[in-house]
């Protein structure tokens, strides 16, 4: 039984749509109305973890109000601009190097300081926790803010997305410098055993110095001279930026846009 739908045994009734493929449920990538697929989501596990870490640190009274105000007041600057969702700053194999750099930054600036803070809470080193918390809070807030811009790449322009790590890195340099100066003090109270105190003093100095060196190099040797100019060039000219290509047709095209 056909249930009353479909061709009859005699073939006298044929539906008009028979023999034609059904229309696609989703627009093809070549369709002018198709929106590129993105795998970024605002409330992913990563975003919820960083938001939770920032909230815990903010309510623990170990983070100055100035750092909290910086993270909150930066959000209104994430204003919409001309969308540029399909063009990453570093396409191709260079993206793997960028991912490796990001992983190293998470290890030095996120994972190890988090372990240092948790160990300080366990051993009673309140001074060490207070010294490292502002830096950890700023990194968690940066990751969450970058998630906001990545969740809607068709809403935030590429320069806005590139400016987020630059602004946070500048602010974090001050927090890392303050952390290093506090760790260089000879004695801290609140630790029970001398062995634990000595271990944490060494660990704190190494972590603070490593973060100061890593994020300083990240800011002055990567973000400012390479990452930000490349993002601006890709946004306004639509092509890759290479310091050795000055005077090329791409740069001439950008100059023509400025003149017009």
Automatic annotation (TrEMBL):
Gly residues: bias regions: 1-13
Protein name, entry field: DUF7733 domain-containing protein
Region annotated Disordered, chain positions: 1-33
Entry's transmembrane regions: 51-78, 98-118, 206-228
Segments of skewed composition (Pro residues): 19-30
Keywords, in A-Z order: Membrane, Transmembrane, Transmembrane helix
InterPro entries, per database record: DUF7733 (IPR056635)
Domain of life, per lineage: Eukaryota
PANTHER family with a match to the protein in the record: OSJNBA0044M19.10 PROTEIN, TRANSMEMBRANE PROTEIN
Domain DUF7733: 44-236
């Amino acid at each position: 039984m056909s249930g009353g739908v479909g061709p009859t045994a005699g073939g006298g009734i044929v539906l008009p749509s028979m023999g034609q493929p059904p229309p696609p449920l989703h627009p093809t990538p070549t369709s002018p109305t198709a929106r590129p697929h993105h795998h970024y989501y605002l409330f992913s596990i990563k975003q919820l973890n960083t938001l939770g870490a920032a909230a815990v640190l903010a309510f623990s009274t170990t983070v100055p109000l100035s750092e909290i105000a910086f993270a909150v007041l930066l959000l209104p600057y994430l204003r919409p601009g001309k969308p540029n969702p399909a063009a990453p700053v570093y396409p191709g194999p260079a993206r793997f190097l960028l991912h490796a750099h990001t992983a190293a930054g998470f290890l030095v600036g996120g994972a190890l300081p988090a372990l240092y803070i948790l160990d300080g809470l366990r051993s009673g080193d309140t001074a060490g926790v207070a010294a490292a918390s502002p830096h950890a809070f700023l990194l968690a807030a940066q990751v969450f803010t970058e998630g906001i811009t990545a969740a809607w790449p068709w809403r935030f322009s590429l320069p806005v997305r590139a400016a987020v790590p630059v602004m946070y890195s500048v602010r974090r340099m001050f927090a890392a410098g303050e952390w290093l100066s506090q760790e260089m003090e000879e004695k801290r109270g609140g630790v029970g055993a001398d062995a634990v105190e000595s271990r944490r003093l060494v660990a704190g100095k190494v972590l603070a110095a490593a973060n100061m060196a890593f994020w300083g190099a990240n800011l002055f040797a990567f973000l400012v001279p390479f990452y930000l100019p490349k993002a601006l060039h890709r946004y306004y000219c639509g092509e890759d930026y290479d310091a050795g290509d000055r005077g090329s047709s791409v740069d001439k095209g950008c100059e023509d846009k400025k003149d017009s």
